[in-house]
Amino acid sequence: MLELNQSNTDEILIKDVNEDTFMDDVIEASKTSPIVVDFWAPWCGPCKTLGPALEAEVKATNGKIKMVKVDIDQNQNLASQMRIQSIPAVFAFVDGQPVDGFMGAKAPSELKSFVEKLLENVKDDGGDLSEAIAVADEMLEAGEYDDAAETFEAILGEDPERSPAFVGLFKAKMGAKKIDEAQKMLEDIPTALVNKPEILALQAQIDLTNQTQGLGLKDIAALTEVLALAKRRGENFASKDVLERYQKWRRFDTSAMALATDSINKLFSNDNSILRSIRDIGLGGVNSTPQLRRSFMRHAAGLSGDLPKLLQGQVI
Q1: Distance between CA atoms of residues 130 and 64, nearest Å
Q2: Which among 58, 198, 208, 272 has the fewest CB atoms less than 10 Å away?
């Protein structure tokens, strides 16, 4: 069983919501897993007993059920819409609809039965790992790349073919600037994942990163060559003519790179079925054609096009 950091898990399983987030955190979220909604208020005595007991039962499901809390004093319109007459008031949502609920205090055994009944609506989709992935994704978005990578690696240790975890680990490596480790991942892709679009997209991201680095090498080499020529001619390094000479030389590669970056972003952020098919065919063709792949790699490494003398091994 994968063990998660308890504080991170609690933040995912139990959260406060308001009128602005209710639609996303309850209605939409309940289409993925059941959501228990606890309407309460700070002045409500029974709420202080029922709330923690209900939270404990929800946590015991290991992420199969989630819970949100609504302070009715801060969300009076929402309480009115839900026809809350007294608190504590608890509702269970599944597939965007309320399916069960109660008002008033309940014994621990009744809370347990309430949650167990709700578990009947849970599909067996690897709940524990799904929750772990959700926690790791939160870390990734927060820029906690090392913690995210550790969690994704633990997930892959239990299920090496879990595609979201593989993609997440790759992104964590890239975020931590561990490009070589990310590249190594693409050399050891599990067979079941090789042709998945989200995995093929990772290679495009690596190629784009390498191309950016190659472009930087070309920039440095080109600027060095322009400045060396200016020195021999006795020109001022800061003169407009010298700078324009460098800019004119690098304009094409810079513009091409910007266009490529924009095109790749649009291609992989669009879920249109036609674009997805074109994307998959193109990536599959590159991966299966060694000569074409080598050409892309040379370009990514900055070894093609109008090369400065330094990159050709010549003296300037």
Answers
A1: 9
A2: 272
